[in-house]
Amino acid sequence: MEVESFNDIPSDMVCLTIPAQTYATANFQGSNEHIQNAYKELHKWMEIQNLKRSLDSWHLEIFHSWEDVENIDVELLDTI
Predict the structure, then answer these.
(1) Spatial distance between the Cα atoms of 3 and 30, rounded to a whole number of angstroms
(2) pLDDT of 61-76, one tens digit each?
């Protein structure tokens, strides 16, 4: 989540600033056991599009639902 300021950060958490980046994205819904298949499909699509992965940048996962590991809802963001 993007924030403008960091206030009252709990002692067991850290503040992390990720610079602006460009991402290839894919949504995944289903069992956590199959998330790697979604990454493989995303990487295959990126290759077809001639997009090069940036392996030394931050890649993100935005979870919209994670309570049930058999039915997660996550957005995969792979830096290009």
Answers:
(1) 29
(2) 999 998 999 999 999 9
CA-to-CA dists, residue 80 to 32, 44, 75, angstroms = 24, 13, 16
Q: Residue 43: enclosing H or E segment and its boundaries? A: helix 35-48
Structure tokens at 3: 């924030």
Q: Token pair 């009252």 is at which residue?
A: 8
The pTM score is: 0.80
3-state class (DSSP) for residue 37: helix
Contact 7, 46 (CB under 8 A): no
Specify which residues 27 forms β-bridges with: 75
